Amino acid sequence: MDNQLPIGSTIGILGGGQLGRMLSLAASRLGMNTHIFEPNINSPAGRVSQHVTTASYDDVEALQAFGQAVDVITYEFENIPTSALDILENMSTIYPGRGALAISQDRLAEKNFLNSLGLQTAPFANVENDKEAVSAIASIGTPSILKTRRMGYDGKGQVKITKPTQIHTAWNTMQGSASILEGFIDFNQEVSVIAARSVDGEVSCYDPSENVHHDGILHTTKVPSSLSTPQRVDAALLAGKILNALQYVGVMGVELFVTPNGLVVNEIAPRVHNSGHWTQNGCDICQFEQHIRAIAGWPLGDGSRHTDITMENLIGEDINRIPELCKSSAALHIYGKEEIKPGRKMGHVNKRN
Amino acid sequence: MDNQLPIGSTIGILGGGQLGRMLSLAASRLGMNTHIFEPNINSPAGRVSQHVTTASYDDVEALQAFGQAVDVITYEFENIPTSALDILENMSTIYPGRGALAISQDRLAEKNFLNSLGLQTAPFANVENDKEAVSAIASIGTPSILKTRRMGYDGKGQVKITKPTQIHTAWNTMQGSASILEGFIDFNQEVSVIAARSVDGEVSCYDPSENVHHDGILHTTKVPSSLSTPQRVDAALLAGKILNALQYVGVMGVELFVTPNGLVVNEIAPRVHNSGHWTQNGCDICQFEQHIRAIAGWPLGDGSRHTDITMENLIGEDINRIPELCKSSAALHIYGKEEIKPGRKMGHVNKRN
Asked: What is the interface pTM, i.e. ipTM, of the complex?
């Protein structure tokens, strides 16, 4: 492979949170250097990386210097300003590519793309004004959920609607942001597939995991899931279809609802994903290393599961359980965030089932 | 446990090589910060750590500032100057303690200590002058090996003796350094036990591994070893005896010869050990994390083996095999050293057996 980055190359990572941190630790294992671009000082990722640029995403000079200093660029979150990407793409390769980013930044584009592949999504309607809000509730009905098309995560920017008349209040809370109204899916389980695709087009999927959310935030992920063997195959094929259609390079998280009518795609995330953290203790090559391998032009590693794992997120004050948790046989992964806030992901534990 | 360091504490590590690097990566997983003390710039460990002091081990001010900045001190090599330890021990706890360091810094003290516990070592005689050299060869015979008592590693400072008359040339090459003459051990296998002891006195051993050396440098480590079950138990009990006698805190490498007359201790190393690198892919909690847990006053983690592994060191030009090796299913661990030198450890791979 001619485009294989040699060891000692520098991986540029946009975002200095926990995903950037774990990407950086994995890159270090492979003998790579990392360079974090992050607006906040003393970030979780910055503290374990050789180079850090502390600047905002509209700092053109800082972006240019960063782009010139690195051998490939990746990111830990999908809501990167388009203007920053415009600058960076002239200086280095960005993986995963902008097509995947554009789709995942906009819930409407995402759903249209998925439907165009023949994949099921929740029924949805675009809402950009009062009139569309009214016609959306008429077509989608209740229960349903109004979501901003952009910049939502962990349940933020979402309003649940149980009666048609609530659409007006819901739409007002969006403050004019383009939104979509999604019909509720009656699902048995939420699962996700963490899939990877190499520069050469090789695709590899981790075993699908079963997820439990609390208050819109992932609480636990368990492998193996209770999916049947045909369902697991379906999930992997579906993920492969998405990655291939996008000529994707890197790791993607694909969230699915398991329904009586088959698998419905909830959301895709063009990055390493919280529901893939179990791979750190369930597989030889975790999702973070797999992502680094992919974007470095390396072949994918062995992602087969050697251990059954339940991952539990440590949210906010949960981090105070560490003195007890370290007495258990669980593997701890702590993000080094200095301030505890409600809803903030502080770490996670991987326990053998 | 009252003396349990909280997450966010700073682990001070003397030495910035690959062992320091992997200790630092493990500490980061646990939400700890690390501070590397290392004379050379741009060291493998320094590049993945939040704080680095670049200074020599006789820089009193730098040692004092380092000692004040960290919450506990550990090290990646045993040949730390006593004068540096004298300064540091006034400022912070040093784990493993100085008793273990003093013993492992001097082959004579080490063998006397091991014999005092009733453990077998190679027959040996102290050699500090011509007269002792002659009487040593008379008592130990040939084949034997003259070794400097201090500062030897990876087969350095050693001369093999096959005829008694060679003792004179051998002793001359030592340039007056106090040495010991060791009788050759007729062994079936070389194994090692990586053992850990917590502040509370809990002891845990990893499964003994079988080692193959080339030119005095570890080449491969394999688990499980071909030891019988009683031999494995013996090896673990023997290691526990050593750690308890020293009231040891941290991970220790115990190298053993398997002989028809039982287990003979070759050498102990008061630190994480090359023959324990397999634990990174064979166990949930690797030796590096186990060491950090121990010196942080945490309970030990689960060190049971979930996968059979063969670790192979990548020495010197071996690192050029990476473009091929990354196509295999092996897990790679690369140290980020910029210059390739013959005999230099550049990385290692862990393959499933």
From this structure: 0.93
pTM for the model stands at: 0.95
Mean pLDDT of A295-323: 96
Q: Is the pLDDT of residue A198 over 50?
A: yes
Do B178 and B325 fall into the same domain? no
- Alpha helices in chain B, H assignment, sequence order: 18-29, 60-69, 82-88, 98-104, 107-116, 130-140, 167-173, 229-245, 279-282, 287-295, 322-325
CA distance B157 to A54: 48
Q: A24: nearest CA in chain B?
A: B48
Contact assignment for A47 to B31 by CB distance below 8 Å = no
pLDDT for B287: 98
Contact B106, B150 (CB under 8 A): yes
A-contacting residues of B 243-282, CB under 8 Å? 281
Name beta bridge partners: A193.
A254
In the structure, what pLDDT confidence band is assigned to residue B157 with cuts at 50, 70 and 90?
confident
Claim to verify: residue A65 and residue A177 sit in the same structural domain: no
A139/B28 Cα distance (integer angstroms)? 51
Is residue A156 within 8 angstroms of chain B, CB to CB? no
B4 and A285: CB-CB below 8 Å?
no
Under a CB-based contact definition with an 8 Å cutoff, are residues B70 and B142 in contact? no
pLDDT at residue A23 tops 80: yes
- On whether residue B200 sits in a domain, the answer given is yes
**Location of structure tokens 């473009």:** B323
Q: Is residue A106 part of a domain?
A: no
Same domain, A314 and A167: no
CATH number at residue B148: 3.30.1490.20
Same domain, B16 and B88: yes
B142 and B272 fall within a common domain: no
Which of B73, B94, B115 marks a domain boundary?
B94
Tell whether A307 is within 8 A of chain B (Cβ): yes
User: How many domains does chain B contain in total?
Assistant: 3
Q: Assess if residue B152 is contained within a domain.
A: yes
Domain that holds residue A147: 123-183
pLDDT of residue B25: 98
